[in-house]
Amino acid sequence: MEEKTINALRWIIEIFNKYNVPYRIGGGFAAKMYGSPRPLNDIDFGIPEKYFSVILPEISKYITYGPKRYKDAKWDCELITLNYQNQEIDISGTETIKMSNKERTKWIPLDESSDTLDMKFKGIDIKVMDPVELMEYKKELDGDHQLIDIRAVEDYLASH
After folding, report:
1. What are the C-alpha distances in Å from 54 to residues 28, 69, 77, 143?
2. Phi, psi values for residue 104, rounded to 5°
3. Mean pLDDT to the nearest integer, 109-135
4. Alpha carbon distance 110, 99 (integer Å)
5. Which tens digits make up the pLDDT trace of 64-79?
6. Top-level CATH class of 3-159?
7. What is the pTM of this model?
């Protein structure tokens, strides 16, 4: 994994820990923690929306979007996007996040406060989305990269 990603991860986790912000890592980074070989685009975090204002003073100079409601055909959530030393970080609110199903016919509320696994990455203690939940939500997403992640998580679950 690139050094910029490790540095960004360490930076944001230190902020979350400093303010006792409950978080979990999802998306491609979580899939990588379960063995996905694909390149990483960004780091996705879920935190309760009430903590946005707590961390804003620490992250404000890196904000490229938000904090505000983001809605497209796939996602409906409170969102902050950061660019920390050329590494994108997405922080979505966990209390009201929804994603559409693959057919785009209904919205699915996500329980972003559910189980996490405590893991260690490059000496950093992190909280990662439960692999079963990660796999289930990735099945509702489009793209071949999602299939790569799903296979990796399935392999992880089969071996653990």
Report:
1. 26, 18, 18, 35
2. 60, 35
3. 88
4. 7
5. 999 999 999 999 999 9
6. alpha beta
7. 0.93
CA distances (Å), origin 144, targets 139, 140, 148, 149 = 11, 12, 7, 9
Identify the burial level of 33 via C-beta atoms within 10 angstroms of its C-beta, where 0-12 means exposed, 13-18 middle and 19 or more buried.
buried
Cis before 22 (ω within 30): no
Q: Which residue is it, tokens 């939940």? A: 133
Supply 92's token pair: 């979505």
Residue 97 in tokens: 């996040």
Phi and psi torsions of 131, nearest 5° = -65, -35
Domain ranges of the chain: 3-159
